Amino acid sequence: MAEPTKHNINIKIADLTPIPLQITLDNEKTYRDAEALVNGLWLKWMQTFKDQCTSKEVMARVAFQFARLYVESRNANVKVEEFLTSFEKELDELVINITADPK
């Protein structure tokens, strides 16, 4: 199977030098959405902390916020996976009991 064709894009984050990336066309929306989320929060917090923090300090806050959200999401996914595993086991037992009971 052929590897998807890649193309070059530049991601502009905050006031930093653009980041060149080589991605598949299917992934571009994800990258652009992430770029917009980071920049939106950075701009908001630059205004909020304009007299208190440098751009790099605000970017550190943004990075921490997204990392925290990632960890919360990952933990929630683990809980869902554990629930589904338990539910599947219970469902299997019910199906086995129903098919084993000749009524």
Structure description:
The protein has about 100 residues and is mainly alpha-helical. The chain is built from two helices and two strands; from the N terminus they run ββαα. The chain has one domain. Strand 1 and strand 2 form a beta hairpin.
Record field, number of beta strands:
2
Radius of gyration: 23 Å
Beta-strand fraction estimate? 5-15%
Q: Mean of the pLDDT scores? A: 93
Distance between the terminal alpha carbons, to the nearest Å? 51 Å
Shape: elongated
Helix content: 55-70%
- Number of helical runs? 2
Look at the helices and sheets and give the structural class.
mainly alpha
Number of domains: 1
Q: Which consecutive residue ranges, at least 5 long each, have pLDDT under 50?
A: none
Report the order of strands and helices.
Answer: EEHH
Largest sheet: 2 strands, antiparallel
Strands of the largest sheet, in order across it? Answer: 1-2
Short characterization:
The protein has helices at 28-48, 55-100; strands at residues 6-11, 19-24. It has 103 residues and is mainly alpha-helical.
Topology:
Blueprint: E1 6-11, E2 19-24, H1 28-48, H2 55-100
Antiparallel strand pairs: 1-2
